[in-house]
Design a protein that fits this description.
heterodimer, A: about 130 residues, alpha+beta, five-stranded mixed β-barrel, about 35% strand, B: alpha+beta, nine-stranded mixed beta barrel, 3 helices, 9 strands, globular
Chain lengths: ~130, ~270
Amino acid sequence: MKKYQLNILIVAAALLMLGIPLWAHHGNASYDNDNPITIKGKVTEFAWTNPHVQIYLDVKGDKGAVVHWSVETYSPGKLVRAGWDKDSVNPGDQVSITLIPAKSGAPVGFLRKLVLPSGKELGLQELEN
Amino acid sequence: MRIRTMTVTCFFALAAVPALPALTHAQMPGQQSPVAKTNVSAPADPHDLSGMWEFFANIPGQGIYATPSKDHPPMTPWAKAKYDEAKPGYGPKAQGGGNDPILKCNPTGIPRILFFPQPLEIYQTPERVFMFFERDHAWRQIWTDGRGHPKDLAPTWMGDSIGKWDGDTFVVDTVGLNEKSWLDFYGDPHSDDIHLIERYKRVDQTTMSLQLVVEDPKAYTATWVGDIKSYKLLTGKKAYMDELFCIPEEEDAFTNRIRMPAVGQKPNQ
């Protein structure tokens, strides 16, 4: 019985942790970890650089106004291990990005998942499941 | 022997990671060639830590991320003053922005670089164990030829390390660390009197564990015994390390474009 309860605890802990944006090595206190949102827009820049790769895009709001979003990801090395490369995203691409937004309300976020025009998904998972 | 040692040192300094598989002559008996040929289904040799390992925060049973264990021991007034000055991005004092020394491209240093969420590659020779880190493109050497620490060490970012096997545990003893680096992501300090013990174990073919033990009476009034950190072996295409130097202009650009806007501040000019 005790072992069973322990297993449940371990599984519960693992599930909880899956929802956590694992690390933004310089600190992720700026972002609202608990409330991810999804934005869709046109990429203006894909900055494949240290310390963290960045994606910039224009997102049309409900009333037609365009908001310029800045999206942080991980370092190029971590993204390579998660299946990205320097040409994964290009200016002009219409993409969908799920991110955790800045607590400040600024149009800045930390990426969790990107969907390319082809439907291909890119995430942050380095280890195979 | 001395010439060979120097040659190997120079070679490592110049050629670094991609050339490692060519150095098979320096391997210990029974040791696999690193990374590419790793057979993950074969039983692991407990005395072989070679390979590319990465700390992942989201694997079951993982120790806490970013610090040796959940709570640090009581601090001395000296350490408390340093801790009060720290504005970290993680832990109880987490905040956006901050004054983490790595934001200015100070080396991450030992022990913090050990639990960075980026790979480290271990390479064993008869005399030394090498660790190559993606973070900072840094490396360290751990002498295993029975020598002790030099006397009157000038403190450095990586310190002076000696190691030996205690059963199936590889025990690394490090002194000579400067006090410029934070001990962890939480802004916990250490002094240059720190005596660090690292206990590595090859748990199975794809898992290595590490427990840190920090003795630093100038900073903490008790020994800090860390929890168990787990590392997974990177194989195939995943066994890749990028060139992750910290470049001041890249850090500044990132700060201006992401970090400051994220916390609602205007970029620096």
